[in-house]
Amino acid sequence: MKVLIVYWSGTGNTEAMANAVCEGARDAGADVVLYPVGEAGDVSDCDVLLLGCPAMGDEELEPEEFEPFFAAIESSLSGRKIGLFGSYEWADGEWMRIWQARVEAAGGMMIADGVMAYGAPDSDAVAACRNLGKLAAEQ
């Protein structure tokens, strides 16, 4: 099973989540590739695509790098297995619900509900991230 993880992190919170997702997938036996969004290339060469981005501004994806990246791949998500994760520090996590709806509207198949951490990921959020990686490896 090949799992690709692409993330953007400004404070390190979503990067910590990406690393926990990666650990969970590797521990479950997946072949895992982890990239910050600026280094990501072709995302079609994987069995499961996991995307991480924090909430920014008015409950939106990071607008300079991640949103353009996601918008560019959005039309190619149909039939693909997708997982989402990210951190937030205000509101109630609406950005994740919107993001997940975008994936589903594009025909992507969510392997689980998006994993969220309020601020820095605590032990529960780290465990949820590892579980997301494990689920990806089991697809």
From TrEMBL:
Start and end residues of each Flavodoxin-like domain: 3-137
GO molecular function: electron transfer activity; FMN binding; oxidoreductase activity, acting on NAD(P)H
Alphabetical keyword list: Electron transport, Flavoprotein, FMN, Transport
A UniProt-annotated Pfam family: Flavodoxin_1
Spans through the membrane: none
Cofactor(s) demanded: FMN
Entry-linked Gene3D superfamilies: 3.40.50.360
Membership in a protein family: Belongs to the flavodoxin family.
Function: Low-potential electron donor to a number of redox enzymes.
Name this polypeptide is given: Flavodoxin
Species annotation: Candidatus Stercoripulliclostridium merdipullorum
Lineage: Bacteria, Bacillati, Bacillota, Clostridia, Eubacteriales
